[in-house]
Amino acid sequence: MQRWLLPLNLLLALLILAVLALVASDLVSFKMSALFPRRAAGSSAPAPPPPAAEDLLSFSAILEKGLFGKATQGKLTPITLAAPAGKGGAAAPAAPSVSDLTLLGTAVGSFRETFALIVKASTHEERVFRLGDMVFSAGPLVAVKKDVAEIVVGGKRVKILTPNAVAEAAKPGAPAAGTPGLAAPTGAGNYVVDARALNAALDNIGQAMTDARLLPSVKDGKVEGFRASEVKPQGIFGTVGIRNGDVLLRVNDFPIDSPEKAIQSFASLKGQSRIKLDMIRDGQPTTFNYDIR
Predict the structure, then answer these.
(1) What is the pTM of this model?
(2) What range(s) does the Type II secretion system protein GspC N-terminal domain occupy (predicted)?
(3) Which of 132, 241, 258, 262 has the smallest number of CB atoms closer than 10 Å to its CB?
(4) CA-wise closest residue to 288 among 240, 247, 244, 235
């Protein structure tokens, strides 16, 4: 009996060690699974969709109620993308047309003393523009010459011409034909002017402004008047005795020290019975008097 006792004890010891090994293995596996969870199942599952961006219109109440004060009160408007051109979408607006713009006169000097008088035929509105000004919302004024002004429309330069330049080829001599009988000298600095001829010339103020080139005359940093140059002998300026180099100062004691005042002065001559023109000729003050008959 004692001979079998030792082998039994060894067998029992081995069984106990095997059981303890299994228990220890289960404990280690449980601890490892807690520290390193399985990822196989998670990797095959689809990723959750990202949260949808909240519609900006949900914040419209903040603007409408003026949460941050009346200055921030307003309305949030959704952006609508324009349909692509050529596929049934609305066509882009055409560039502003300059067909109804006419150049009436120019004054060319320094950058700040260069002007263009332009009329909009559709509204009969006349305005004086400096370089860089927006011309009736059509485009900025970029260049001014004697008979032409240039604006930029849609990235391209577009010319605005005087009536004389537009009709030069068709009827070059018609406007000048009526001016030789406009005025007749009666003495030194005195003229008799035909009323009908004067009114006819003033009705075509655009043509009259092309009969001479008027440039600002600056004295002591201020515009004192306009110096006449390139005077056409048969034009309205030439027939009333104005020469190249004359500086026009006042018309009926109204100073013409800006393009706006010069236009107003010429427009006011219609219907007058007498006209007084103050100027500087050869450095000396001179006065011309005109009787309108």
Answers:
(1) 0.42
(2) 14-160
(3) 132
(4) 240
The chain-wide mean pLDDT, for the chain, equals 73
CATH number of the domain that 136 lies in? 2.30.30.830
Residues 33 and 21: their CA atoms lie apart, in Å, by 18
Which residues are 119's β-sheet partners?
102, 126
Q: How far apart are CA 32 and CA 28, in angstroms?
A: 6
Spell out the long-range contacts of 44-48 with Cβ–Cβ below 8 A and sequence spacing 24 or more: none
Give all strands (DSSP E) within 220-258, no chain letters. Answer: 222-229, 247-251, 254-255
Long-range contacts (CB closer than 8 Å, 24 or more residues apart) made by 127-130: 128/259, 128/260, 128/263
68 found inside a domain: no
The span from the first CA to the last CA of the chain, in angstroms, equals 167
- Residue 184 CA from chain centroid, whole number: 47
